[in-house]
Amino acid sequence: MSQQHTDTCDALGIALLANVPVVLWGPPGQGKSSVVRELAEGMGAHLETVIASIREPSDFAGLPVVDTASGTASLAPPSWAVRLRDAVERDGRAGVQFYDEVSTAPPATQAALLRPILEGVVGDLRLPEQVRTVAAANPPDVAADGWDLAPPVANRFLHLTWSLDAATVREGFTTGWPPVAVPRVDAAEVAAQVARTTALVGVFLGSRPELVTRVPGSSADAGRAFPTPRSWEMAARLHGHAVAAGANSTVLTLLLAGTVGVAAAGEFLAHLREMDLPDPEELLRDPGSWEVDPRRTDRTYAVASSVWAATAAHPTAERWAACGRVLARIADAGSADIAFSHGRRWARERPEGAMPPPEVVASLGPILTELGLLTRDA
C-alpha cells in the first residue's frame, strides 16, 4: 500500500477516534463504500448505510406524527435510525451511520442532514454517543446529477480525498485490502493534547482574525473545508487526538486541511513551526529552563496557554505549583497581563492542599489576593 493511502487511512481512523464526522471524496469505483463496511467490521460496530440521493428530507428530519389525545406532534425517526440505536444499546458496541452519495442528494435533503451529522439527532431520536458518522461523495463533475455540498453541511465534516493508486490496487487484488484501524490512545494524554492545541489555535486566531471565518467565494472551493469557529474546534480536536496517537506530520496536515481548508491549515502549521514552542511537560518539570523573551509576547502567550492546558489536564499539587512558577517568570519579565489572564484560572482551580511557592506569591500576589487566597497584609 502506498504511503499516501496509508496516511489517508490513518486520518480516517483518527477521525473516528475523535468522533468527528468525515466525508470521503473520490470518483466512482474507488472502494469508498467497501472500506466503510470493512471498517465497521473491524470495529465490531453495527453499520447502517443510507443512500442519501434516494432519500427524502423526512428520512433524516423525521416524519410528523400527530398525537390527537394531547394535541401535539412528534417527529418519528426512520427505521434505519431505530435499528442503529437499538443495536448499539442492546449489544453495547459502537455504531456507524454511513451516508452514501451525499453529493447527489438535493439541497433540501442535505439541509435535513444537518442535525444527524453534527448532533446525532434523527427526527426526535438521539443516537447513542458510540455512533460515528461517515459519508461518501463523488465530486460534482463526475457525479450523476451532482450538487456541491451546501456550506452548512460541508462545514460539519472532515474532508478526505479517497483514491486507489496502482500499488494499493495491486496489493489489494493479490494479498488483500489493508484494514483501516482506529488507534488506541490514553484518555488523559488526549485531553492534554486537545487542550494544548485548542489554546494554540486561539493564540493563532488572535493574530490572524481574518481566518476565524472565511466562507468559500469561488466555485472551485465550494462544498469543501473552510474555516469557522466550528471547524477550528474540530481541527483542534483532531490534531490533539493525532498527536496522542503518534501520527506523522502528513496525517496532521490532512486532518487540518480537511477541516479548515488548505490555506488556513498551512498558515497555522507555519505559525507553530515559527513559534518553536517548548514542550509544556518539560517546563512543568523544570520551570526555570525557559527564558521569557519580552519582545515576543505572542510566543509568551502561547507558552502560558499550553502550560496551563497541560496542568489542567493532569491537575496535581506539584504540577499546579510548577505552572505558577512559569506564570511568575512571565510576570517578572514584564508580561504581567499575560500571566494574570492565565493566573486567574490557575488560582481558582488550585488542587486541595496545594500552596503557591514564595516566589510565586511575590509575583502573582495581586491575583491571589483578589481571589481570597492571600490576605493583603500577608
Topology, element by element:
Blueprint: H1 3-18, E1 22-25, H2 32-43, E2 46-51, H3 58-61, E3 63-67, E4 72-76, H4 79-91, E5 95-100, H5 107-112, H6 114-118, E6 121-122, E7 125-126, E8 131-137, H7 151-154, E9 158-161, H8 166-175, H9 187-207, H10 229-244, H11 249-260, H12 262-275, H13 280-285, H14 297-313, H15 317-332, H16 336-348, H17 358-370
Parallel strand pairs: 1-8, 1-9, 2-5, 5-8
Antiparallel strand pairs: 3-4, 6-7
Helix pairs in contact: 1-10, 1-11, 9-10, 9-14, 10-11, 11-12, 14-15, 14-16, 15-16, 15-17
Number-wise, the strands total: 9
Radius of gyration based on Cα positions: 24 Å
Q: Termini, distance in Å?
A: 67 Å
Strand order of the largest sheet: 2-5-8-1-9
Shape: globular
Measured as a percent range, the helix fraction is 40-55%
The SSE order reads HEHEHEEHEHHEEEHEHHHHHHHHHH
Count of DSSP H/I helices? 17
Name a few traits of the molecule.
single chain; about 375 residues; alpha/beta; five-stranded parallel sheet; two-stranded antiparallel ribbon; 17 helices; 9 strands; about 50% helix
Tell me about this structure.
The structure is a single chain. The chain has helices at about 5-20, 30-45, 60, 80-90, 105-110, 115-120, 150-155, 165-175, 185-205, 230-245, 250-260, 260-275, 280-285, 295-315, 315-330, 335-350, 360-370; strands at about 20-25, 45-50, 65, 70-75, 95-100, 120, 125, 130-135, 160. It is α/β, with parallel strands linked by helices and about 375 residues long. Strand 6 and strand 7 form a beta hairpin. The mean pLDDT is about 85.
